[in-house]
Design brief:
hydrolase; globular; 4-stranded antiparallel beta sheet; alpha+beta; 8-stranded mixed beta sheet; serine protease; S9 family peptidase; WD40
């Protein structure tokens, strides 16, 4: 017998991620995330599965093992355990610490092996600061979500000798640097680093190169100082860098750029695609681009889902993954001609899939490619929750009065009769997107669908995957531009008789929390409202958020508009019962934003409740305490069902 997913099932989740393919293409090491209910924590361990088949096996037991990376000869795995680098033989056994708190007091970063396997480079904070130590702040960028106050601490590059464990600092300076990439001859490291005057803040960045044998230096900038550089890697002949970034700083798509080492202008290799290249990050799945023969394989987002693409002399072609799937992690080894990908679909949250890149034949620019069926290597969903089925997610397009087409997902049980309640959920970002596949984060979707609800998740203007014009459509006009992207699709569902107009609830997180608060002040359509990780006052946000400077200067632009576009300025119009859910250690949308909104509503006699999750960062819905994630979903379900019952 099967049953629908419930909120408490999160304690049984096994979610694979961050796959690393061995040099021979036969073994995939990956991080498996599970939940420890007894200690209310997330457990991460390293697992392995073979491309030829067979069950996955555990290599380490955690509780904080991440970022597995194979040595060039495939004999060892480097990984992070509790923030320090460890080595594990490919044959198994006990892991051995490579770095220690004595040599890396602030910990290490994601390991990057040198071509000869003798050294490992990583980016990490340059010093350790005790929690009780005073924090000196004299520049923007003094905090980071999930870390807290960082003051003048900066992230630098380090290299550790694998045999001796000796650690050498490679870069220095008043700026953060990103994950490095070794040159093919092993003599240089390329990396992204900020270039602006307040270089620790979110601002312009560029690709840099530094010689490994040099004394610690600031390196040499090779990209434009006013651009944006993300992950970098080298062309195989060492002649140029491959950069995920932009040629000018601002809001817009990241592109695949060929950056000459002489500092001349970069060339976009992905402009014809008009899609955002995804280098990877929490909540923004993607991967470092890699070479496959004369082609480059990379990730980009299309209609909400991250997909694999290839660019070569024939143009850009899409991956052979089936419709309804999306990538949440990827590892490409060009020598073996294979790609290890973490894929989600309608019935599985995430599983490891192996793709044969040599069988990928181009279908022409922008067209699907021919290729073999993907080989699914793991079955963690079936193993951990064999009796559970997920409610289907269907895609829908709504054409608005101004001609804009809004792509949305609808989740509802197959036997749900028309005329029931509706939950509208707005994603964050604002440049993120809902994907048309299963989702292990928003468990309340499945719970409510089991109770006869319809869930509408629209990709409003500013969402990723619909071209750069759509991506930038809400700049300078948050709320004003995209409010109809919610209201008109809801009106269409009401007109069709699919939902009850008196039983409509609204929720959203981060930017979705902003738009939820905005819409509750602009419309009386919603019987219950649940904003999470909220943003309500753009002016105070600008001075207190880790991203405030970027939002104020580039998302809003005009300082005179900040009050007008702040939901707090319109709180007098709110009537709907409001539940505010917020992380107590959120440095992206500081908890003061939630406190201001709660105060504004309660002093106006609006039914309101504020729930703060102590110690939880902005991303706690992804990887925070299981009890906090469970509580978030349970409270949301209880609030919307209570306030929409007639």
């Amino acid at each position: 017998m099967t049953r629908p997913l419930t909120i408490e099932d999160l304690y049984r989740f096994e979610i694979p991620g961050d796959p690393a393919l061995s040099p021979d293409g036969e073994r995939v090491a990956y991080t498996l995330t599970t939940q420890d209910a007894d200690n209310d924590r997330v457990i991460r361990s390293i697992w392995e599965v073979r491309g030829g088949g067979g069950p996955a096996r555990r290599l380490t037991h955690g509780p904080a093992d991440t970022a597995p990376r194979w040595s060039p000869d495939g004999s060892r795995l480097a990984f992070l355990r509790g923030g320090q680098l460890h080595l594990l033989s490919a044959d198994g056994g006990e892991a051995v610490a490579l770095t220690t708190s004595a040599r890396c007091p602030a910990g290490a970063g994601t390991p990057v092996w040198s071509p000869d396997g003798a050294r490992i480079a990583f980016a990490a904070p340059e010093a350790y600061r005790a929690d009780s130590a005073p924090v000196v702040i004299d520049a923007l960028g003094w905090k980071a979500d999930g870390v807290g106050l960082i003051g003048s601490l900066r992230t630098q590059l380090f290299v550790v000798e694998v045999e001796s464990g000796e650690v050498v600092q490679v870069t220095e300076g008043d700026r953060h640097v990103g994950t490095p990439s070794w040159s093919p001859d092993g003599t240089r490291l390329a990396y992204p680093a900020q270039t602006g005057p307040d270089a620790a803040a979110l601002g312009p960045s560029a690709a840099h190169v530094v010689g490994v044998g040099e004394q610690a230096s600031e390196g040499r900038r090779v990209g434009p100082a006013d651009g944006l550089a993300g992950p970098v890697t080298w062309f195989p002949d060492g002649s140029a860098l491959l950069v995920v970034g932009r040629t000018s700083f601002g809001v817009g798509h990241s592109e695949l750029l060929r950056q000459p080492l002489d500092g001349s202008a970069p060339v976009s290799l992905s402009a014809a695609l008009d899609r955002n290249v995804m280098g990877g990050g929490p909540g923004y799945p993607g991967a470092l681009p890699q070479f496959h023969g004369d082609a480059i394989v990379f990730c980009a987002r299309d209609r909400g889902a991250t997909r694999l693409y290839r660019v070569d002399a024939a143009g850009i072609s899409a991956s052979p993954l089936p419709a309804g799937t999306g990538i949440s992690g990827c590892s490409v080894v060009t020598k073996a001609g294979r790609a290890a990908v973490v894929v989600s679909d309608a019935s599985r949250f995430a599983e490891i899939v192996l793709l044969d890149l040599d069988a990928w034949t181009s279908g022409g620019p922008g067209l699907p490619s021919a290729g073999p069926r993907p080989a699914w290597l793991t079955d963690h969903m079936a193993r951990s929750l064999p009796e559970v089925t997920l409610h289907p997610v269907t895609e829908r397009e709504f054409t608005l009065a101004d001609g804009t087409v809004v792509h949305a997902m609808i989740t509802r049980a197959a036997d749900t009769p028309p005329g029931g309640p509706l939950l509208v959920d707005v994603h964050g970002g604002p440049h993120n997107a809902w994907a048309p596949h299963s989702d292990p984060v928003h468990l309340y979707h499945q719970e409510l669908a089991s109770r006869g609800w319809t869930i509408l998740t629209p990709n409003v203007r500013a969402s990723d995957g619909y071209g750069e014009a759509f991506y930038t459509a809400a700049l300078g006009a948050w709320g004003e531009t995209d409010e109809q992207d919610v209201l008109q699709p809801v009106a269409a569902l009401v007109a069709e008789g699919l939902v009850d107009p008196a039983r409509i609830a609204l929720t959203g997180y981060s930017y979705g929390g902003y738009l939820t608060c905005w819409l509750s002040a602009r419309s009386d359509l919603f019987a219950a409202v649940v904003p999470g990780g909220v943003l309500v006052d753009l002016k105070s946000m600008a001075g207190t958020s880790e991203e405030g400077h970027l939002i104020a200067g580039h998302e809003i632009g005009d300082p005179a508009r900040m009050a007008e576009l702040s939901p707090l300025s319109h709180a007098d119009a709110v009537r709907a019962p409001t539940l505010i859910l917020h992380g107590g250690a959120d440095d992206t949308c500081p908890v003061g934003q939630a406190e201001q909104w709660f105060h504004a509503l309660r002093t106006r006699d609006v039914p309101a409740r504020l729930v703060v999750y102590p110690g939880s960062s902005h991303l706690f819905l992804l990887d925070g305490r299981p009890s906090h994630r469970e509580d978030y979903s349970r409270r949301l379900v209880a609030w919307v069902t209570t306030h929409t019952n007639r």
